[in-house]
Write a structure and sequence with these properties.
The complex is a heterotetramer, with two copies of chain A and two copies of chain B.
Chain A (H helix, E strand, L loop, with lengths): L1 H15 L2 H9 L3 H14 L18 H13 L6 H11 L11 E3 L4 E2 L5 E6 L7 E5 L3 E6 L4 E4 L8 E5 L8 E3 L3 H30 L1 E2 L2 E2 L4 H25 L8 H26 L10 H13 L4 H15 L4 H8 L3
Parallel strand pairs in A: 1-4
Antiparallel strand pairs in A: 2-3, 3-7, 4-5, 5-8, 6-7, 9-10
Helix pairs in contact in A: 1-4, 4-6, 6-7, 6-8, 6-9, 7-8, 8-9, 8-10
Chain B lengths: L11 H4 L2 H11 L5 H4 L8 H9 L18 H14 L4 H17 L2 H12 L5 E4 L15 E4 L3 E9 L9 E7 L11 E7 L5 E7 L5 E14 L3 E2 L5 H13 L3 H4 L2 H14 L4 H29 L5 H26 L9 H13 L10 H12 L3
Parallel strand pairs in B: 1-4
Antiparallel strand pairs in B: 2-3, 3-7, 4-5, 5-8, 6-7
Helix pairs in contact in B: 2-5, 6-7, 6-8, 10-13, 11-12, 12-13, 12-14
The chains are: A alpha+beta, B alpha+beta.
Organism (chains B, C): Aromatoleum buckelii
Protein name (chains B, C): Acyl-CoA dehydrogenase
Keywords (chains B, C): Oxidoreductase
Chain lengths: ~325, ~375, ~375, ~325
C-alpha cells in the first residue's frame, strides 16, 4: 500500500509541484489563482480524502498508510497544507460534520482577547490556506482564512502567517479540542523527513558531480564522513516520523507524535549544515533548489514546538509514569 | 547499497520470551548495584552464562540439531535487549553467542559444527577474536601472524593484541596468514580456531582505563594445530572476517550499553530532584533518541530475519548508537553537576565514572567510527 | 607554527574611542528594526559609510599621509566591535577597509597608494574581491581569467563568481593569470585592480537564499587595463592573496555577526518570558562563549599590533567563532519554540529567520572550515 | 613573571610528579608517606606561599601571576591540592590566622545534620588532603581530614572523597564564607586547561608517530580535522582559565570564575573524545598515560559545578543586570 501511495504522490507532485511552482507560490506570483490550480490538482487526485471513510466516499486509509503522502509532500516542499487537510477531513468525517471546500491548516497557538478577537501568532501555511483549525482546548474550530488579517511570520519565502480574526463567525465546524498541536507536530515531522531526504539526495548528487582539485569531492574522506553523518540523521528522522504515524486509526498518539517531532526537529541543524557545507556557494543561491528545502526545514522545526518543547513533554511523562526502566516506558508508550 | 529502514514490530511469539527473561533477571540481579551492572557486556560471570544456557537462551538462532534454539533473530533481539538493559554480566559467552557460533555454523565443517556448537549453546565454550595485531590497527589486511602447513596440520607463530577476554576464554578464532606476504594484503589470509590451552600460547591481560582487564595480548610460539583448526576455506579469511564483523555490528549492543546509567539517573531525578526544565528536557530527549534507535535496530533485525545481510544499515545504526552511548555520560554528568548543593548518591557517581571511562571503547569495538562512516558513504554511492 | 594566545587588554587610548562610536550609532541606528540590523556586514548603505568616513573611522590603521587614522589594530578592533554588535550597515566599505586598503598599502606603488587610499578613507572607493571562478571552488590556484600584455597595459578576459557587492563597488582586486597555464598552478598569477566602470565589464547579481543580492558573477570581455592596474609584482599574486586572506581572517567579524539576534532574544527573555532553567542556561552559555572568543580575538589583535602575522591563530579563532555564530540561530530557535503558547514577537522571528538563512555563508567567506582546519593542523605540526 | 613560574613548576613536577608517582598516589601505594614525600617537595619549592604577602614570608604574587602554577599542576595531573592550598594560605595570611601545616583542599558542598555532623559529598582531593575548607555560607572553616570518615567518591583512580565529620572541633581557622565554590571552580579551571593541553600534546605526538595503512595517521585529512577541533577547544579553555585568574589581587571575581569553569568544563567532552579517538586502543590502556589526564578532566568537570550550573549563574546575572547588549555585560562584568 505504502509503495503505491509513494509512487502516486511522486508522480503527482513531479507534475504539478516543480521547484518553480513552489517559488511562484512563495512569492505570491499569480496570486490566489496559482494556488487554486495546484490545490485543484491535489484534490482531483483524491488524496485529500485519503482518511475519509469509504462509506463517505473516501479511501479509508489509516494514518500509517498515509505516511508517504506527508513524506512526499516534504520531498517536494509542497507549499500547501495537504496532509493537514487530509487529517482534519478524516477526523471530521467520523462525525456528521459537513466537509468544507479548500485547504485546511492547523494553527500553532491561539489567544482570545476579551472582545472576542482570535489571534494566532504562528500558523504554518497560514498565508496560503483556505481554512485554519484553531484549538481552543475545550473544542477546536475551523475558521475561514479569508476572514483574517494575515502577516507573514517568517523570513524570505515563508508562507507562515500571524493571523487575527475580529469577531469570527463561529458556526458549526466544531471538533474536539486539545490534541491538535500534537497532531500538527506529527504531520509536519513526516514532511520534515521528506525534505531532509531530498537534501540528502541533492547532496549525494552534488558531491559526485562537483570536481575540485582534479577529482569529485565525493572522493574526499572529509566529505564522505560528513555525508555519512547527514545520512544517519536523515535515516533517524525518517524512522521517527514513521513512529509518529504508526497507528491503524487516524489520530496520532501523543507520545509517538512527541518523539516524531522531537527527533526530526533535532536532526534539522546537522542535516541543513552539512548540506550547505558540501554545496558551498552554489547551495546558497536562490536559483539553486537546495534552499527551498533547507528554509522549509528550519520553519517546520519551529512549527508546533521545537525539540526542547517535545523533550520536556516526554521527560515529564516519563517521570510521571514512575517507571524505573526507560526501555519499558519506550516499549509501552510508543510503537515498536 | 543502503536500503531504507521501515518501521516494523517484533512478532508476538518472540515478544512472548520477554516475561520469562525478565523474571529470571529480576531474581539473578537482585541487589547487584548499578555500578557493577553498568559493566554488562564487559561483566564476566561464567556461572551466570551457564544458567542462561540452561534456560536455552544461548545460541538461540542456531539450529536445534546443534543444541541451538532454532529461533529467529527477533527472539535473540528480545533476549539480548533484556540482558543488556538490565546490565546482566554477559561477556563470558558474548562473542561465542554473537559471532563465533554463527561463523562456525556458516563456514565450519560438519565435524566442527558438531563439536563446537553444542558446547557454545551449553555455555561451555567461550570464544575470543584474534584480529588486531600490534602494528595493524584498523588495517586488518596487514596481519603477520602466520600458520605454516605441517604433516598433521599447522604451526602457528605470531602475536595478537586487544583480544577481549583471551585469558578467560577457551578458544580464539584467529585471522592468520597461510600463504603470501603482508604485501599481498587480503590474499592468503585464513581463519583458525585455536585452543588456548595448547602449548606455546601465552596470554597477557592488559589493564584498561577502568582498572579492569578485558583486553589481552596473545603470543603464539610454535603452537601445533591439527588439520581441523582451519575454519572455512584456506585463503578465504578476509571474506569470512567481513561476514563475522557484520554479525558483530548488527546486534543491539550499541544502543543499550549505557542504559543502566540512564535508569539510575532517572530514578534519582524522580526521587530526589525538583523538576527543572533543563533536566526534564534532557531526560525526554534521551528517551526519544532511544525510541528511534530501537525502532531502527528492530528494522535491521527484521532484515536479518528475512535472511538479508544488512551490512551498511547495521553500520549506520551502530554509528548512531555509539553517538548516543558516548554522549550520554557527558550529558548526564553535566546535569548531575547542575546543582552542587544536591549531590548525586555515591552509587550514581560510581556508575557515571565507570561509563565515562569505558565509553571510548564503544568506538573501538567492531570498527572505528571513521571506518563505519566510510562503509556508509560507499553504501550511499559516494564514489 | 601556532603560538599560544595570552590574555591581554585593549589599551586605554583605543578603548577611549568607544564612547563616541557608541553615541554616533545610537543616533544613526535609532528605530532600525533588528531584522534589518541583523544584516550588519551584509547591510549596504553608502551614505552611512561616508558618514563613518567623515568621523575618521575608515582606514583607521592606514598612515595619516594617505588619509588614514594612523592608529593601531586595537583602535580598529574597538570601532569594528561597536559597528558589528550594533548591526550597522557596513558592507559598502567593508572590503576596502578590511583588506583592499591594507593590501594596496603593503604592495602598491606610491602612485597607487596616493590614488586609492585617500578615496578609501573618504568612503568614495568601494572594493570587491575577484578570487573564485566557476570551476575553482576552494582551489584558487586553478583560476583561468587571464590578463595579456598590450602596448599600453593589459587585456583582461575571463569570469569571476561569488564576488560580493561587485554591482555596487567601484573596483575589484582580481587574481588573474598573467603567464603560464592553469597546470602551472600558483606560478604566473598576479593581482589587478579593475575599474568596474570600464567597457567590457559585465556584472550579474546573484540572488541568495535570503532574497538579497550580494554575490555577483562578473564577466571580462577584452577589458583594456592600463599599466597601473597591476598591483605588486607580476607573478606574485599567490603570495599577495595569501597575505590578503590573512587580513580578512584576523578581524573580529567572525564573532559578532549574530549578536543582534542574541540581544533581541535577551530582551525578549527579560521582558516576556518566565525564568526557565533551560533558557537561562543557554543564555549564560552564549555569554560565556562570547567572553572567551572576544578575549581570543583581542589576543590576536595584540599580535597584529606588535607587527606579527598571526595567520594560524586567526584561523583558529575564526573557525571557533564560526561555530559559535552558526550554532546560535539553531539554539535560539530551539528555545523560541520551547513554549508555543508564548510565541516570539514578529521582529524576533524575522531576525531569527534571516540569521538562520544567512548563516551557511559564514563558512564560505574567507575559507571553508575544512581549509581553516587544515591550516591549523599544519600550524600544530601535523605532518 | 609567568614564564619563570611556568618553567620552575615544569622542572619541579617533572622531577617529583612523574606519571608513575601519580599512579602510586591514586592507588594509595606507599600510603600517606608517599604523599608526604611529594608534598614536602612542593613545600620546599616555596610555591605553597606564592600568594602569601612578602611581609609574612611569602612571594606576594597576584592570582594572575600564579596562573601557571595551577596550569602546570594540571599538565602533570598532580594528585595533591597545591593550588587550593596556595589560595587558602594567601587569603588566610591577610588576617592574623596561623597558617596550618600540610595540604588544604576546598569542599564542593556541605550539609550539617541536627546533631552537628558535617557531611560533604564531593571533596575534590579529599582522599589525599590534610585539611578541608568547608564553606558554611556565613563563614568558612578548615577541618582536619584526619578527623573524618572518608569514602572515595568516584571511579577507578579517583582521589575525591565523600567526607563526614562527627562533632568536628571547630576552633579557629575561620574565614569569610560564601564564595569558596567559585574560588574552587576558578582554580580547577586552570588545572583543567593544563590537563587538556597535555592531552593535545600527546595526541599530536601519537598522530605523527603512529603508522597505519603505510603512513602516519597525521596525514589523514580526517585526523587533521579532528585534532584541529580539539586544539580550538584547548585554546579556548586556556583563555577561559586566564579570564578566571585575571585579577591583580588574590580572589577570583565571581563572573570571571563562572566563565572559566563553564568554558573549560564545556571543552572536556570534545577534547577527551578526540584524544581517545585518535589514540585508539592504546589510549584506553592503564599503562599508557593518556588516561591519567582524561580521567582527571572528567572529574574536574564535575567538581564545583559543571558547565550547566555556571551557565545558569551567568544567565541569571545577565538577566538581572537588565542589559540589552550582551557585549556590554561581557565587557563590564569580565576581564578583557
Amino acid at each position: 500500500m505504502r509503495e503505491i501511495i509513494f509512487d502516486a504522490m511522486e508522480q503527482l507532485l513531479g507534475d504539478c509541484c516543480s521547484p518553480n511552482h513552489v517559488r511562484r507560490i512563495e512569492r505570491g506570483e499569480g496570486g490566489p489563482k496559482e494556488r487554486a490550480v495546484l490545490w485543484r490538482a491535489l484534490q482531483e487526485s483524491g488524496f485529500t480524502d485519503a482518511l475519509v471513510a469509504e462509506a463517505r466516499g473516501g479511501s479509508g486509509l489509516s494514518l500509517s498508510d498515509a505516511y508517504p503522502i506527508a513524506f512526499v509532500a516534504g520531498r517536494h516542499a509542497l507549499p500547501l497544507p495537504l496532509m493537514q487537510t487530509i487529517l482534519v477531513r478524516g477526523i471530521m468525517s467520523e462525525t456528521n460534520a459537513e466537509l468544507p471546500e479548500g485547504s485546511i491548516t492547523i494553527a500553532g497557538d491561539v489567544s482570545v482577547t476579551p472582545d472576542g478577537t482570535v489571534v494566532s501568532n504562528y500558523v504554518p501555511f497560514g498565508e496560503v490556506a483556505d481554512w485554519v483549525l484553531v484549538d481552543f482546548g475545550d473544542r477546536a474550530q475551523l475558521l475561514p482564512a479569508t476572514g483574517a488579517q494575515r502577516h507573514i511570520a517568517g523570513g524570505y519565502g515563508s508562507v507562515n502567517a500571524r493571523m487575527r480574526w475580529t469577531n469570527p463567525s463561529i458556526s458549526g465546524n466544531e471538533l474536539p479540542g486539545s490534541h491538535w498541536r500534537a497532531y500538527g507536530a506529527c504531520l509536519i515531522s513526516a514532511m520534515l523527513a521528506g525534505a531532509m531526504e531530498r537534501t540528502l539526495n541533492m547532496t549525494l548528487g552534488y558531491a559526485n558531480d562537483r570536481v575540485q582539485f582534479g577529482r569529485p569531492i565525493a572522493k574526499l574522506q572529509i566529505i564522505q564522513q560528513q555525508v555519512s553523518v547527514m545520512a544517519e540523521q536523515v535515516f533517524a528522522a525518517r524512522m521517527a516520523a514513521q513512529v509518529g504515524f504508526s497507528t491503524a486509526g487516524t489520530r496520532p498518539k501523543l507520545m509517538a507524535a512527541a518523539v516524531a517531532k522531537q527527533r526530526t526537529s533535532e536532526a534539522v541543524g546537522t542535516v541543513s549544515s552539512i548540506a550547505h557545507s558540501v554545496h558551498g556557494a552554489m547551495g546558497f543561491t536562490e536559483e539553486y533548489d537546495l534552499q527551498l528545502f533547507t528554509r522549509r526545514m528550519h520553519e517546520w522545526r519551529l512549527a508546533y514546538g521545537t525539540e526542547v518543547y517535545w523533550s520536556k513533554i516526554i521527560g515529564r511523562e516519563l517521570l510521571a509514569a514512575g517507571e524505573s526502566r526507560t526501555l519499558d516506558f519506550v516499549r509501552q508508550s510508543l510503537a515498536g | 547499497m543502503i536500503e531504507s529502514l521501515e518501521l516494523t514490530s517484533i512478532p508476538a511469539e518472540d515478544e512472548a520470551l520477554r516475561a520469562s527473561v525478565r523474571a529470571f533477571l529480576d531474581e539473578a540481579l537482585d541487589g547487584v548495584p548499578a555500578d557493577v551492572r553498568a559493566r554488562s557486556w564487559m561483566g564476566y560471570d561464567a556461572d551466570f552464562s551457564r544458567r542462561l544456557a540452561a534456560k536455552g537462551w544461548l545460541g538461540l538462532t542456531l539450529p536445534k540439531e546443534y543444541g541451538g534454539g532454532g529461533r529467529s533473530s527477533f527472539a535473540r533481539f528480545v533476549v539480548v535487549e533484556e540482558l543488556l538493559s538490565a546490565g546482566a554480566p554477559v561477556t563470558a559467552h558474548w562473542i561465542a553467542d554473537r559471532q563465533s557460533g554463527p561463523l562456525i555454523h556458516k563456514y565450519g565443517s560438519e565435524v566442527q559444527k558438531k563439536f563446537y556448537l553444542p558446547r557454545i549453546c551449553r555455555g561451555e565454550a567461550f570464544f575470543c577474536i584474534g584480529m588486531s595485531e600490534p602494528n595493524s590497527g584498523s588495517d586488518l589486511a596487514s596481519v603477520t601472524t602466520r600458520a605454516v602447513r605441517t604433516d598433521s596440520g599447522w604451526k602457528l607463530n605470531g602475536r595478537k593484541i586487544w583480544t577481549t577476554n583471551a585469558y578467560r576464554s577457551h578458544y580464539m578464532i584467529a585471522l592468520v596468514r597461510t600463504s603470501g606476504e603482508p604485501a599481498d594484503r587480503y590474499k592468503g589470509l585464513s581463519q583458525m580456531i585455536v585452543d588456548l590451552s595448547f602449548q606455546g600460547v601465552t596470554v597477557r591481560p592488559i589493564h584498561d582505563i577502568t582498572g579492569d582487564a578485558h583486553f589481552c595480548e596473545v603470543f603464539f610460539d610454535d603452537v601445533m594445530l591439527g588439520d581441523d583448526a582451519l575454519i572455512g576455506a584456506e585463503g578465504s579469511g578476509w571474506e569470512q572476517v567481513t561476514a563475522e564483523l557484520a554479525f558483530e555490528r548488527s546486534g543491539p549492543e550499541r544502543i543499550y550499553s549505557t542504559l543502566v546509567l540512564l535508569d539510575e539517573w532517572l530514578v534519582f531525578l524522580g526521587r530526589d530532584m525538583p523538576v527543572d526544565d533543563g533536566r526534564v528536557a534532557l531526560l525526554g530527549r534521551m528517551a526519544s533518541q532511544l525510541c528511534v534507535l530501537r525502532a531502527m535496530a528492530i528494522s535491521v533485525t527484521e532484515k536479518l530475519a528475512r535472511g538479508e545481510s544488512p551490512v551498511v544499515e547495521a553500520a549506520l545504526v551502530k554509528d548512531l548508537g555509539t553517538e548516543f552511548e558516548q554522549q550520554m555520560p557527558l550529558l548526564i554528568a553535566d546535569s548531575l553537576g547542575d546543582d552542587p548543593d544536591r549531590p548525586a548518591p555515591s552509587v550514581l557517581l560510581k556508575t557515571l565514572a565507570y561509563v565515562t571511562q569505558i565509553s571510548p571503547s564503544f568506538s573501538l569495538r567492531g570498527g572505528t567510527r571513521e571506518i563505519l562512516r566510510g562503509m556508509i558513504a560507499r553504501g550511499l554511492g559516494l564514489r
